[in-house]
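Hi P.,

Sorry for the delay on this. The queue was packed all week, but I finally got your sequence through. Input first:
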Amino acid sequence: MDESEVTILTNSDNIEEVSQVLCKFLKTNENVFTFPNMHENNRRVILWTALFQHLQKRSSVAVHALCLATIRVLSRDKSDLENLICEKWITVLIEKAGLYNLMDMEDESMVPLEMPEKDVAVEALKCLCNLAFNSEVVRALCAHTNIAQGLVARLRVYKDIPFKDEIMLFDMKLLFILTALRHDIKIKIKDELHGMDYLISCLNELVLEASEKTKDYQASASGGDVEGDYCLLHDNQQAIACEILKAEFNLIIHSGLDEPSDEAEEAMYLKLIPVLTSLLNVRTSDEVKLVELHSNIANLLTSVPPNFYPYLTPELTANETAANVYDGRNMDALQSLVQLLHYKLSNTTNTKNQYENLSPILTVLVKSARGSRSQRKYLRQSVLPPLRDVSRPPEKGTTLRNQLCRLLTTPVTSVRDLVAEFLFVLCKEKVGRMVKYTGFGNAAGHLAQKGLLGGGRGASYSSSSDDSDTEEYLQAQPHIDPVVGCTRPPRVNPFEGMTEEQKEYEAMKLVNLFDKMVSEGVVKPARVGPDGRPQPVDHVLELRDQPPNRPQS
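Then the structure:
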């Protein structure tokens, strides 16, 4: 935008002329994110001031949406935002977003006043999202206003807004940004305004609305005979649900709490879990959107105490059915989490993003397996089914077991430990069973950390065994190498045909090579100590003093 156009915006009262300048700017810069030329002659400050002056004029109401769209584009550039924005401008944006109509949180019978036009309200919210994301000053100014009350209050009145889908989406985006980046706003929304309860109710209403629309569509398409029972989230509903889940994650994230802090928090979790269970059973327009939804649910579940996990798989009543049933429980939600794990494993091709992609879902499944016996047995059935083909190493193949075993040797230690813990829990923390499914070489690191290299088990589980060896496994068992976890073909004896002198010569060569590696620090010999962990030895001859321990089942 050149100086002449900025002058028109500053001095002209001709709305048509102003509109032409703004339309030209938006068309030219819709995909631009930096505006270095705005630094010349203080043009940036003059332009922003002119735009907000128009927003405060009733005579310019026809170009308010265009002014806000221009601010939205300009706010992508972080340059000098800290010194540019003032509280008055933030107040104008909040007002144009329709949030100042909803500040009285005490009146439960409150109804919203007249909302701004759709384009104006949505563009104002987009401006607030950009500014809050890019500027700490803006976030501080938001904290000094009543924007938190307005956002939480609007959760109660979306049904009265004709264009609620667009408003909901950007309300939730703004709520997510503010709760992620301003601790004081997060605490206020969570503790003072009870925002979590309103967010859960809003999410529940979203699912109910989608279910009703799906049933209506099924009935009309089948002439009244509804086939199947499912809920379809359209793309805008899926996007809103994801933003709500992200905001909820910000509100309940904590470290190391395995129990709710009070009765109110317990009631909140009991209200949350059924909604998440319903969301895990919905359908979306494509797999990518379903994975995004389920990923946000998994992120949220990482902060849910494990004693609430059994509610993810409720008991079936006499008239209820489910696609996945185990031990009389509806396992559909848990199966969705298993499918998410499979998708993440199949689409994580390098170590760069392993932690980000795999840590949440692995954390959830570990808590699930520990928190519920039925869920652990179902996961065991899905991840570690009875072995049949043991001709290949456990890490070779495309099954969940194969993909997880490959991660037991990943350099990303946090992922490696989560995978090992998950498999160990599925094996009821029995060393022999862990070795059976993963091979001792893959499991050794985890067993060493737990002090179980000498065998044994980590924790007590029910005595009933859910491990049934197949006929194929029993036939191959005598030929399985426990180190690699599979059978090996017969090998030729390398000493065959050698004289005793030749054998002694080759043995001494091996001893000398090993001694050289030890003396140069390439390897350090160790043995299993009384605590079940490896302990270094000063000389390899000390290894003769203790017979090797074998893993016990």
